[in-house]
Every structure is written in C-alpha cells, then in structure tokens.
Amino acid sequence: MAEALKNVIAHSLECPVCLDTFTDPKILSCSHTYCKACLDNLLECHGSDQMLRCPVCRAETQIPNQEVSKLPASLALKSLIEDMNNQHKFCMNCKSDDKPQAVVYCQDCGKYLCITCHNAHSLWQDFISHEVLAMSEIESGKVSVRRYRKCKKHPKEDEECFCSECRRFACFRCVVMEHTKEGHQVIEAAVYESSHMKSIEDLKSKADNKRSCFQKYVDFIDEQKEHVSKVQKQCTDDINKAFEESVRQLTKKKEILIGEVKGRTEGVQKELNEMKKSAEEHITHLTIIADVVTNKTKVPSDMDALAAHDTLCQDLQEALKQEDPDYKQPMQSSKKGKSVSFKRNVGMDEIALGTIVNGVVKNIALPTKNSMSTMVSTPDGRMAVGCSTGGVEIFSADGELQQTFLKRVKIRGVGFLSNDRYVILDDFNNITLYTLEYTKLNVKFKTLSHDECEFADLTVDSNDQIYVRYSNWKVQKIQVFSPAGGKAIREIPYDGFIPGQITSNNDHLITASWDTIRLIDKQGVVKYELAKLGDNLSHAVSQGNTILIATVKHDAALVSIDEYTNELKHVQSIVIDYDIEKPERGWYYLQQYRSGEIALCTPDRLYIFH
C-alpha cells in the first residue's frame, strides 16, 4: 500500500506538458502548475502576446513583460520533490520488515532490488533479458524509471484500459462500474498508446515538412537579398571608380548618388528582412510546439496531462493550416532593388558623375547565329539554350556563357529530371538521358521518327514524366514517357490547334500556337485560352506560380512581357515595346531565372530583363 502511495505521489509530481518531474514549478492563475521552461516555450509560441493560455483548462494568465519567472513558485511541490529525491529506495522483494537499501531497479519487474535479490534475479533464466538500472544512474538523472499506472481508486489494479469518451485511463474494475454506458468506447491502454504515438509521429512529420517549406522560403529570401546586395555593391563600385577619375569638387555629388542607391535598395532590404523575420517566427513556432507535443519517451496518462496534450495538438494543427509561403512577394520586392544601376556621364561638358537608373537589360549574342531551338531553366538556377546546329549553352543570370556541352548533338528539346539527369530530344526525335558529367545512359525510348513527324518539342513535369509534343499536318498528339524508357505510357490528343511549344505547370500543360496560349489538362482538355492575333506568343511559368507571356511583333522587332494568373487573367505589364534586333526567323522562347531575371531568347540573341 505504501509503495502504491509513493507511485501516486511520484505521478502527481509530473508536469502535464513535458511529462517529467517538475523543474522550477510555477503556478498559473487557474492554479495549474507547470515547469518554468515549459511555460517559457508555450509563451514563445504566442509571439508578443502577454496572455498565456493554460493547456489543461484553457484559462488565461497575464504574464507581465513576458517574464514567466515572475509567476508564483510552488514551494510545496519543490519541497516534496526534494524529499522524494532524497529518500532512499528499499528492496521490494525482501519479506522482512527491516528491508535493505535497493541498489538497482528492474524496469520489467517494476521493483527495486537489494544486492542479494539482484544477484538471485540475474541468475533466473527468464529474467536475463530484463532491463536493470543502477540506483546511481537513476539518482543522477541519467536515466528515468518507467512508471506503471495504478488506479487511484483501486491501487492494486493496473490501468490497462482507456476510455476514448472520458479521455482517461482506467482499471478493469472502473471500466465495469463507470464506463459501460452508451457512448463510452473502451480500448486497451496499449492500443491507445500505439495510436497516440502514431498520430504524434504524423503531426511531427507534417510539422517537419511545413518547417522545411518555410526554411526554403527563408533561403530564397536570403538569395534575393544577396542579389540586391550585389547590385548595391556594383553601383557603389561604379560610382567610386567614376569619382576617382573626376576632381575633388565632385565629393558632394558622389555622396548624394551613394545615398540615392542606399535609399532605393535599403527599403527593399527592409521589406525582405520583415518577410524573413515573419517566416522564421513561424519556423520557431512550429519547432517549439512540435517538440513539446512530440515527446517520444512518455505518453500523457492523467486527465490534466491529456487535456494539455489535446490542447497542444490542436495548436499544432492550427499552425499547420497556415498557407505555404508566397515567393511572389519577395521576388517583386527584390526586383525593385535589382533594377537599380549607375549610368555614368561620358563626353558631356557638365562635370558630373552620372545618375542612378532603373530597368537594366542585358543583350547577349549567341555564339552560333540563327541556331536557338529551345531554352529551359536549369535546377541550379542558370539557363540552358539548345542549338539546332549542335550543343547546349549554359548562361548565368548575368548573361555570362559558362559552358557548352553535347556540341555534336543537334538539340530540339532539353529537360531536367529530379535526380540531376539531363533529358535531350535530338533532331531525329530520339530521347537520350545524360548524367551531370554528360555520360550517356543506356535507356531507350520508343518515339516517333523524324519521318513520321518533323516537328517535336519536349518538357518534364514535377513527377519526372517526360512529354513529347508532335505537330505537323498528319500527327497531332503528345506522348508521355517514364524516365525508365520504353514505349509511351499514354498519349494526349489535341484537336483544332497545333502547338509550337509546350511547358509543364503543376497539373496542366501550357502550349503556345504562334498567336494563342492554351492551358490544357493532362487529358488534353483546353481549360483556358488567350489569343493575340498577328503576334508571336511565348510563355514561361514564373517563380510566383503565375504565367509570363511575351508578345513579339516580329516585323517591328518589339517585345512586351506581361504577367498572368493561372486562369490567363492579366496581372501586370512588365516590359512594354522593348526594341530587339530582328532575327531571320520568328522563333522565340521565354523563361525565368530562379533569381527573378526574365530571359527572352531569339534565334540569335539572349535578352535578360531585371
């Protein structure tokens, strides 16, 4: 009976949140008690709020200046915990009244044992595999004793059942007497514990995924900040160089210009910092509450602990409902900073350094004239231009040609699989896979030959399915291939139009048919359509999950770029009637770098808009 009473007392000394013995217990206004560290974590989840909601009864307690340490301490609990920790444990196996002091605790038997009983216990064949803990490790806090739930009404009975309706554990006698009415659902305690741990693991997994999602968002913001910082540094360097070549009287003008650069870029940095701070606060919120809830070593057993964990689980589920971050906002903010540049005054009578301007455009001549056949952004944030005369050329967001590979392969389409393999469609409609080191892989695909269809294009979706578009007067369809090779796993027909380009966008495909953009589902049904008669249209999926469309007036050599929703509704104009060098043939591709720059490629040149 005494031992059962000790178990009840020890159980009452456990914090309902962390399920460990109280550490620095603090009392809320509702009289419920928790560890100070647990209350600090719960308060941090509420941000700047000074009201703390009790996880058990949900009553609110005001925390002045968010200092949990100022809450009243439970001195009686602290004293009782110290007394319990200082008490010697006696052997529970010896029958004499004068029991010797215990030296070990058997987790499987649930008993403290003296040295004599321990020696006998270790010789029993059935008990060799039992987990035995030394008292020195228990008292030092290195290990914790597994507690056995005993019924408060029937101390000799184990709580082997759980009532889902009452949300409490019960012994068999309590089940018979109190939990047989309609609505009470009684299951084995072990079954509940297993189910509870599975649901906790599911919540933990979802929290990890959501946290990873926001971490990617934070990383993206850092990337945008870095680009803006590079622009600020470049502008400052250009200004300094011009200043060094000028006279001392230009010092004042120099400082004015640098201040203007800072004024245009620091506001963007501030916006990005605020977005980053908000995302990091959500990551912290998810981390703290998920770690508090997902205690893998213990399962809440009494009503307070169960109520606390039910509340915390609900809080975590509410946090998981927050929408995934919108990359469009930091991208739009960074565009304002990245568009800043310094234009130096050259050959002017007036002594001046120059001016700060916006809207930088890079104009890069392709190495091979009239050769561009396709363009696609790479997984590492660069741009790949495929050439019909042979080779894939890789350009940075600054317009630098960084490498050329597969020079002997006449390129018709390029794609990238999630495992960093290249997908190449050549001039004979053959699909070939290559590694990052450009090693050709032995995977064969059964495509239509060049004789069956002269015109083809290729794209890869997020599930690594490969789409090959065929279009001429006798063949009009899209074949879908697995990266494992072989025959097409299915075909998508399209009637009434012949697409010149094809791109994957989530659950849809985007096709361009000279003067018309169409969104079709993966069964070939047209969902949305946009037509601009007389103009060449090219398309790209932007970072903000919208669609960028370039309108090219070929004869006038003018290009405009607009942003549309996924329903092809106009959002904004980005570029209006920009002069380009007129190419020999009207073939254009539009893509977007991961860093936000927009790339328009003609058969001869690559234009990069910031």
Automatic annotation (TrEMBL):
Family annotation (InterPro entries): 6-blade_b-propeller_TolB-like, TRIM45/56/19-like, Znf-RING_euk, Znf_B-box, Znf_RING, Znf_RING/FYVE/PHD, Znf_RING_CS
Domain RING-type as annotated: residue spans: 15-58
GO cellular component: nucleoplasm
Keywords associated with the record: Metal-binding, Phosphoprotein, Zinc, Zinc-finger
Residue stretches spanning the membrane: none
SUPFAM superfamilies: 3-carboxy-cis,cis-mucoante lactonizing enzyme, B-box zinc-binding domain, RING/U-box
Database matches in PANTHER family: BONUS, ISOFORM C-RELATED, MEIOTIC P26, ISOFORM F
Name of the protein: Uncharacterized protein
Provenance organism: Strongylocentrotus purpuratus (Purple sea urchin)
